[in-house]
From TrEMBL:
Sequence ranges of Polar residues compositional bias: 491-500
Protein name: Kinesin-like protein
Lineage of the organism: Eukaryota, Metazoa, Chordata, Craniata, Vertebrata
Any GO MF annotation of the entry: microtubule motor activity
Organism superkingdom: Eukaryota
Taxonomic source organism: Rousettus aegyptiacus (Egyptian fruit bat)
A matching Pfam family: Kinesin
Main location: other
Gene3D superfamilies reported in the protein's UniProt record: Kinesin motor domain (3.40.850.10)
Membrane topology summary: Peripheral membrane protein
Residues annotated to bind ATP: 213-220
Any one annotated GO CC term: adherens junction
Location relative to the cell: Cell junction, Adherens junction; Cytoplasm, Cytoskeleton, Microtubule organizing center, Centrosome; Cytoplasmic vesicle membrane
Keyword Membrane found: yes
Length: 573
């Protein structure tokens, strides 16, 4: 039994072994087949990698070559850079040399042009005359009021800007001056006319610009202007600053200003610590013949701001001095004295030019009736100094050896700026309205006189006698006809010549004989004294604001104890 069971078990075991054997063989076959597939894939991958390797090799070779090339270049770069720098440096050096030499050439040409410009300028000024007279008519203002008295009495020639027509007491009178500005003219238009004079101050010339005319005619407006629309003073300084700046590479300039006034023949320093102190004009004790004003303060200015500070200081000084500043300013001469000192950096040459900007006292004539006491004294002083100024200008124009500078403080102070090569411009201000025509007529006659008489070389003495004598200065009948060369007509044999081209057209005679005091000469004032007319106009305030202004600011006076008024005779540069 056991045996049969054993055999059955054995048989079962054999069957199981058989089946296991078969399972094993199947598994082996499957694994083999899988391994074969995987092997194939690996082979294929390997083949791909081999192919890639084959293509990467040349790229690697190229990279290696490139790298080596770059390495070589980097090693050689400093050398290359050095060489490049060297050649660039050489090129720059050469270019600089070329620019330098062309600069030298330009500088030479510039200097030559500068000389030429100066020569032309001088020639122009010489042709125009060293003394020029222009007129400016202010517009009709609210202060002129309304009605027939405020109607316009002044007309202009559309074709000739040197002619002005005035309708005086129903009769037309015409005048010819160097230039006439109508009420439409702007501050810039007027400044353009005086610009050349101002620049000549940098070249060492002395210049005087006067505003002449009756009170309210626009003197202060022209000289001072308003803060929004400044006049000659402010514009002149601005121009000087910019011109000096332009020449800064070759020249070193210093600009100084003094502000003074002459009231009742007393000269006062409005920038000084003691503005009420009377200043004297003295001759230098060194025998040089130069004048100096001991105690006149001179401030160095570098900008328009500085100027404004100086003005403010002067204004403060003046307002504390006088209760009615407007009235006072119309009865005193206001002077702004600008001195430009230059040193040529390359040659050491020095020049000094002085620009005197003068707002004169009102020129209105005063009748004998209304003037007494201090007003009479004021009027006498104004008359005296304006007459003296007229006499001096007349004597200068006639080129006479003796010029009566000492007859007034104003002419004495300005002596070295009025004589020699100095240049003078008189701006005659007139009011356009009917009620002022007498004063307008007077001012224009004064203007034409200043301008029109010129003496020939042979007969200066004869002319001087008639001009310097007060008695002979009463307006002659010939002057009623406003021919610019009235004197020339009245004394043709004395060698007087009219200004070249002064009679451009036949002017209409006024036919109006002049009354007492309506005189053409400078010496007429003392005969006719009256109270100044009308209240001061609002414009006076501007006058005082700019001319007499001072404040104790950071500005330092460059010479407190004394200022030497140096005279520049002839060009120095
Ligand atoms: P003056 O100094 O001769 O007494 P102002 O300069 O004070 O006269 O002028 C008198 C008035 O006329 C002022 O109100 C001023 O502003 C005005 N005025 C003068 N001239 C002009 C002008 N060209 N344009 C505008 N207003 C002017
Ligand atoms: Mg004034």
């Amino acid at each position: 039994m056991y045996e049969s069971e054993l055999e059955r078990a054995h048989g079962q075991m054999l069957e199981e072994m058989q089946s296991l054997e078969e399972d094993k063989n199947r598994a082996v076959e499957e694994a083999f087949a899988r391994a074969q597939v995987e092997m194939k894939a690996v082979h294929e991958n390997l083949a791909g990698v081999r192919t890639n390797l084959l293509t990467l090799q040349p790229a690697l070779r190229t990279l290696t070559n490139d790298y080596n090339g770059l390495k070589r270049q980097v090693r050689g770069f400093p050398l290359l850079l050095q060489e490049a720098l060297k050649s660039v440096k050489a090129e720059i050096g050469q270019a600089i040399e070329e620019v330098n030499s062309s600069n030298q050439e330009l500088l030479r040409k510039y200097r030559r042009e500068l000389q030429l410009r100066k020569k032309c300028h001088n020639e122009l000024v010489r042709l125009k005359g060293n003394i020029r007279v222009i007129a400016r008519v202010r517009p009709v203002t609210k202060e002129d009021g309304e009605g027939p008295e405020a109607t316009n009495a002044v007309t202009f020639d559309p074709d000739d800007d040197s002619i002005i027509h005035l309708l005086h007491k129903g009769k037309p009178v015409s005048f010819e001056l160097d230039k006439v500005f109508s009420p439409r003219a702007s501050q810039q238009d007027v400044f353009q006319e005086v610009q050349a004079l101002i620049t000549s101050c940098i070249d060492g010339f002395n210049v005087c610009i006067f505003a002449y005319g009756q009170t309210g005619a626009g003197k202060t407006y022209t000289m001072e202007g308003t803060p929004e629309n400044p006049g000659i003073n402010q514009r002149a300084l601005q121009l000087l600053f910019s011109e000096v700046q332009e020449k800064a590479s070759d020249w070193e300039y210093t600009i100084t200003v003094s502000v003074a006034e002459i009231y009742n023949e007393v000269l006062r320093d409005l920038l000084g610590q003691e503005p009420q102190e009377k200043l004297e004009i003295r001759l230098c004790p060194d025998g040089s013949g130069q004048l100096y004003v001991p105690g006149l303060t001179e401030f160095q200015v570098q900008s328009v701001d500085d100027i404004n500070k100086v003005f403010e200081f002067g204004h403060t000084n003046r307002t504390t001095e006088f209760t009615n500043l407007n009235e006072h300013s119309s009865r005193s001469h206001a002077l702004l004295i600008v001195t430009v000192r230059g040193v040529d950096c390359s040659t050491g040459l020095r020049t000094t030019g002085k620009l005197n900007l003068v707002d004169l006292a009102g020129s209105e004539r005063v009748g004998k009736s209304g003037a007494e006491g201090s007003r009479l004294r004021e009027a006498q002083h104004i008359n005296k100094s304006l007459s003296a100024l007229g006499d001096v200008i007349a004597a200068l124009r006639s080129r006479h050896g003796h010029v009566p500078f000492r007859n007034s403080k104003l002419t004495y102070l300005l002596q070295d700026s009025l004589s020699g090569d100095s240049k003078t411009l008189m701006v005659v201000q007139v009011s356009p309205v009917e009620k002022n025509t007498s004063e307008t007529l007077y001012s224009l006659k004064f203007a034409e006189r200043v301008r029109s008489v010129e003496l020939g070389p042979g007969s200066r003495r004869a002319e001087l006698v008639s001009w310097s004598s007060q008695e002979h200065l009463e307006w002659e009948p010939a002057c009623q006809t406003p021919q610019p060369s009235a004197r020339a007509h009245s004394a043709p044999s004395s060698g007087i010549t009219s200004r070249p081209g002064s009679i451009r057209r036949r002017l209409q005679p006024s036919g109006e004989p002049l009354g007492n005091g309506q005189v053409g000469g400078w010496g007429s004032f003392p005969h006719t004294l009256v109270t100044a007319t009308g209240p001061p106009s609002p414009g006076w305030a501007f006058f005082s604001l700019s001319f007499f202004i001072v404040s104790k600011t950071s500005l330092e006076p460059v010479s407190q104890p004394s200022l030497v008024l140096r005279s520049i005779r002839g060009r120095q540069c």
